[in-house]
Specification:
By secondary structure, this protein is of the alpha/beta class. It has helices at about 15-25, 40-50, 65-70, 85-90, 110-115, 125-140, 150-160, 185-190, 195, 205-215, 215-230, 270-275, 290-295, 305-320, 320-340, 345-355, 365-385, and strands spanning about 5-10, 30-40, 55-60, 80, 95-100, 120-125, 145-150, 170-175, 235-240, 245-255, 260, 300. The protein folds into two domains: about 5-150, 3-Layer(aba) Sandwich (Rossmann fold), CATH 3.40.50.720; about 155-265 and about 295-385, Orthogonal Bundle (Rna Polymerase Sigma Factor, Chain: A), CATH 1.10.1740. Helix 6 links the parallel strand 6 (about 120-125) and strand 7. The N and C termini lie far apart (about 55 Å). Bound molecules: NADPH dihydro-nicotinamide-adenine-dinucleotide phosphate and magnesium ion (MG). The site of magnesium ion (MG) has 4 residues, from helix 7.
């Protein structure tokens, strides 16, 4: 690569953000951190800034602004605070690539701002596409930017469809590990605790996505994400359980040929690919040795027991603001489960209830998404209080 790509990392202190920093440090000739954004982990942000020397840092939780300024005084690093500062930072001309790696709905406005600035967006924050996929993909096209997935399944599909005609793609097969509760029945799920749900068999990730993996909502969100990234309807996006997490996803073509992308369960590779695309650089990460991994197995996903997956398909089929309802209800319910205020199966019940009571909007605009998110959070909270 001739020029160094300057990256704004939104969520630099998170699981994806920290691994992105490892990637940046492995390729100093190709990528550099230009902006670091975090919500409230000021101490780690300060440490990262001192090491990487970005042009700017943003701390969203404004009460920590002075602490960060004080710690970075004399370094020449610009410090800003608050949500507006994030939107301004992603649009700056110095930023070549925006890595959206914050968690949840909070990613929506920054991803939209990056799209409207025509940026190369490396997207980990799947929730933004789930909430407002139509709006974001339209803006990416309108302003001439690009959207490269970081999610390992979508990175796999992106690599499988490279060089293929869209009409040749028959279906996408997303693989899922099945999470820690694979094979359990609903009675067993009533008694699972947050600590058990946080033990993912193959991946070490942030808390929210780890719970989503245990409920299969993560796969449901990924079905919706795949719809917007690859332009296929729900019935041509399938999910198969593959407990080893070695095949990251597959694409079946019209002639019956199936392509898969394989790798170790290590997010540094899809992060690297999204940051340096279309280049493939030789990194220091451990490589897949097929003789070491043993048998690769597949089984159907149990949508009856893991209702969230069925609800996500339903939200995608309904379209409009329904995926936004699904997402907001899920975010609130997951937090309540983590605080042990509701049981694991109640997460699905709350989402279903919100979906059945929400006002449907077929062609929502940004204001509709914001209002739908607000209404749903309030509704979900009320349901939790009475559950
Ligand atoms: P983490 O919880 O580990 O990290 C979240 C990051 O987002 C933290 O840096 C946090 O800052 C920051 N953040 C939270 N709220 C805001 C906000 N309002 N504005 C700006 N930054 C904010 O999450 P993960 O890294 O696990 O996941 C991030 C995203 O990537 C999610 O959308 C997830 O679905 C997706 N993803 C993650 C994978 C993984 O392996 N972890 C795999 C595939 C996708 P602070 O630390 O200060 O709170
Ligand atoms: Mg994934």
């Amino acid at each position: 690569m001739s020029q160094v790509r300057r990256v704004a990392i939104l969520g630099s202190t998170g699981s994806i953000g920290r691994q992105a920093i490892e990637v940046i440090e492995a390729f100093p000739e190709a990528i550099a951190a230009d902006v670091l954004v975090t919500h409230s982990n000021a101490e780690l942000l300060i440490e990262q800034a001192k090491r990487l020397r970005p042009r700017q840092v943003v701390i969203v939780h404004a009460a920590l602004y002075h602490r960060v300024c004080e710690a970075l005084a004399g370094t020449g690093i610009r410090v800003a605070a608050g949500q507006e500062a994030v939107l301004a930072a992603v649009q700056q001309p110095q930023v070549d690539v925006v890595l959206a790696a914050m968690v949840g709905y909070a990613g929506l406005l920054p991803v939209l701002a990056a799209a409207q600035a025509g940026k190369h967006i490396a997207l980990a924050n799947k929730e933004a596409l789930v909430v407002a996929g139509a709006l974001i993909t339209t803006e990416v096209r309108r302003y001439g930017g690009c959207l490269i997935p970081v999610d390992s399944e979508h990175s796999a599909i992106f690599q499988c469809v490279a060089g293929e005609a869209h009409q040749s793609v028959r279906r996408i097969i997303l693989t899922a590990s099945g999470g820690p509760f694979r094979g359990m029945n609903i009675d067993q799920l009533r008694h699972v605790r947050p600590q058990q749900a946080l033990q993912h068999p193959n991946w070490k990730m942030g808390e929210k996505i780890t719970i989503d993996s245990a409920t299969l909502m993560n796969k449901g969100l990924e079905v919706i994400e795949a719809h917007w990234l690859f332009g296929l309807p729900a019935e041509r996006i399938e999910v198969v359980i593959h407990p080893q997490s070695i095949i990251h996803s597959m694409v079946e073509f019209s002639d019956g040929s199936l392509k898969a992308q394989l790798g170790l369960p290590d997010m540094r590779l899809p992060i690297q690919y999204a940051l340096t695309y279309p280049q493939r650089l030789s990194g220091p990460w451990p490589r897949l040795d097929l003789l070491q991994v043993g048998p690769l197995t597949f089984e159907p996903a149990d949508r009856n027991t893991f209702r969230n997956l069925a609800l996500a398909y339903e939200a995608l089929r309904l379209g409009g603001n329904m995926p936004c309802v699904l997402n907001a209800a899920n975010e609130v319910a997951v937090q309540a489960f983590l605080k042990e205020r509701i049981s694991f199966p109640t997460i699905s019940r709350i989402i279903e209830q919100c979906m059945s009571e929400a006002d449907f909007i077929g062609q929502p605009g940004l204001e509709d998404y914001i209002e739908t998110d607000r209404w749903t959070r309030q509704k979900a909270q009320a349901l939790i209080e009475t559950s």
